[in-house]
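your task:
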Amino acid sequence: MNENIFSGVADIYDKYRPSYPAELFTYLCSSLNINSYTTIADIGSGTGILSKQLLNICGRVYAVEPNDDMRKIAESNLSFKNHFISVKGTAENTTLPDHCVDYITAAQSFHWFNRKLFKIECQRLLKDKSQVILIWNCRQENNEIVQVIDSISRKYCPDFSGASCGMRGEKICGDYRDFFLGEYEIKTFYNPILFNKESFLGFHQSASYCPPKKHENYTAYMMCLADFFNKHSQNGFLKLENNTNCYIGNV
């Protein structure tokens, strides 16, 4: 993983990336019995978007993040929480002690990890029979609005291969058999994103595939996105059809 990929855009990431739906956390509490005694390691925690929501349902969150810019924002936002513990570490080497957590989460981050080494680290960290929870916000790829936005990104962004490094386009069945041990659970929660113009542009500026401001394509990319927003927004807002996909299993 390139630990510096979001350096310089962490503030934009924190401001414009969407959170996760309440239904996800209701499900985690009811199905997995996550409660005030539960300890979770949130790996690749970034600016703490998921960690913040986890703190509302569990007893302790280790937020493990290698990028200094991202981690410092999380610390600024969440250090007042008594059970938030910020950790400088990677998915493959968290620095946490053995068998210290009940669950491991990875939101918008698993695709950056070395799967084999992360699996070994999960096995070291988890208590007996505990599970890993992988989470992504995924645009609905059959939606016309999403398809046009992707075509714009494909035109101007040399590194574009799909949202979340193409995770949105993967077939669900069998994707993670090399990671999970046996069967794993798949849950999908509707999570539409409502943008104004500022947040629409900021959302795309926060993407790993967005060209840097000095790149020759950057200005044209932003102008094309702004033009798209102006044409398709209603009353100053544009809704992006989005699901939150969740994968839960043993490792």
Observations:
- The first strand starts at residue 39 and ends at 43.
